[in-house]
Amino acid sequence: MFTNSSKYALKAVLYLALHSDENKKIMVKDLCERINVPKAYLSKLLQDLARHEVVSSSKGPKGGFYLNEQNLTMSVLDIVHIIDGRKKTESCLLSLEDCSRHKPCPLHNLVSSSRNEMLNSLKDKTVKDLSLDLKHKKAFLPLA
Amino acid sequence: MFTNSSKYALKAVLYLALHSDENKKIMVKDLCERINVPKAYLSKLLQDLARHEVVSSSKGPKGGFYLNEQNLTMSVLDIVHIIDGRKKTESCLLSLEDCSRHKPCPLHNLVSSSRNEMLNSLKDKTVKDLSLDLKHKKAFLPLA
DNA sequence: GATAAAACATGATATAAGTCATATTTAGGA
DNA sequence: TCCTAAATATGACTTATATCATGTTTTATC
Predict the structure, then answer these.
(1) Distance between A54 CA and the closest CA of chain B, angstroms
(2) Cross-chain CB nearest to A140 (options B2, B14, B104)
(3) Which residue, A111, B43, B115, B127, shows the most beta carbons closer than 10 Å to its own?
(4) What is the pLDDT of residues A92-126, one digit of tens each?
(5) What distances in angstroms separate CA A87 from CA A47, A95, A144, B47, B116, one per listed residue?
(6) What is the CATH T-level fold of the domain A4-91+126-135, as seen in this structure?
(7) How big is chain A by its Cα radius of gyration, in Å?
(8) E strand intervals along chain A
(9) Is beta strand A64-66 parallel, antiparallel or unpaired with respect to B56-58?
(10) Which residues contact B133 (CB under 8 A, 6 or more apart)?
(11) Between the CA of residue A131 and those of A24, A40, A136, B29, B99, what are the distances in Å?
C-alpha cells in the first residue's frame, strides 16, 4: 500500500505529535530508537518533511525535531504524497491513461467507491486527530 | 497500489479472457504488442501464472496461451497474491506487527472498513466476471 | 525422424527504493 | 570567540523491482 518511507515518516510524525513541542525537541538519535527506524534513513526523511513543513526543526545544541500547531494540521495523505508522490493514490488501479468515469477500466467500477472512501478518510484526518486518538486510547502505537 | 508486474498480469489475463480459448491460443509475441508490455517480461509473468493455473499454455507449433473454464474462476486478488505476494494486502497500513482489531494502530480504525470492502471486492470478482463486464460494455480496456 | 515453432528456464543488466557514511552548516554555552 | 552538538547536504552502497537476452525443451507438421 504505502512504501516503507511513508510508513517510517508517519511513525516519526506520530511520535513527535505525542512527545514533542517547541520546548521539548527530539533528536534523530533518540527518535530512531523509539520508532525502530534506521537513523541515517530517518534523517533524510525528516529533512524532507521539514522542507515541506510537516515537521519543525532547529539546529545546534538543544536542537532537534518537533511539531508546532501548523504542523499538526497536516493530513495523513499530505504526508504520503510528499514522500511517495501522488501517482500511487491518484492513478487508476491498472495505470491505464485513458481510464475515467466515462470509460472505466474493469477494476474501476469495482473498487472506486471503497477506494475513494479510503482516500478521503486519509485526506480528512490530520496528525492532530490521530494524536488525540492515541491520547484517548482509541488507538495504539506499537512501534515495532 | 499494485506493482507493475501485477498490472501487466491482469491486463494479460483480461486480454486472454476476451480473445482466447482452447482452440484459439495466443502467442506471447502477439500478446505483448496488444497489451503494450515488454515481451521478455511478459513471458516471465505468464510462466509464473501458468505454474499457478491462472492461465493455460501449450508448447510447440500452434502453441500459445489461453484460458480454460477453470482459469476463468480465478479472482483478481488471487492473481495479485501470486505476483506480488500476500504481504501488501494483508498487513496493517503501517506494517506494525502488533496491530489488530483489539489494539489498532491509528490508521487501522480510520481505513479498515473501506479497505476491507475494497479487498473483498477484489476477492469476489473473478476473471470471468470482469470479462463479462467488458463484453457487455460495462467496462473498457484501453490497453495503453 | 528432421525441422521449426512455440513455451520454459535461467541468468545478466538497468533502474528505483532503501540504507549507510561522511562532510558541512548552524547555533547554544563556556 | 571558540568549542561542541545538533540538523543539513551529498554521495556511496545495497537490495529489490523491472527489463532484456539467450539457451533448452516440447510438440505439431512434413
Answers:
(1) 18
(2) B104
(3) B127
(4) 899 888 888 889 999 998 999 999 999 999 999 99
(5) 22, 9, 28, 29, 22
(6) Arc Repressor Mutant, subunit A (1.10.10)
(7) 17
(8) 56-58, 64-66
(9) unpaired
(10) A106, A109, B139
(11) 16, 25, 9, 54, 16
Q: Average per-residue pLDDT in chain A? A: 93
Global confidence as pTM = 0.91
Architecture of domain B4-135: Orthogonal Bundle (1.10)
Query: pLDDT at residue A135 above 90?
Result: yes
Footprint of strand D on the protein (CB under 7 A): A 26-29, 40, 43-44, 46-47, 50-51, 57-65; B 3-5, 8, 38, 40-41, 43-44, 58-63
CA distance B64 to B15: 13
Q: Strand A56-58 vs strand B56-58: parallel, antiparallel, or unpaired?
A: unpaired
Q: Residue A139 and residue B97: Cβ atoms within 8 Å?
A: no
- The tens digit of pLDDT for each residue in B50-63 reads 999 999 999 999 99
Which of A3, A8, A94 to probe by mutation at the B interface, max B CB count within 10 Å? A94
Give first-to-last CA distance, chain B, whole Å.
18
- What cell numbers appear for B126 in the block? 473473478
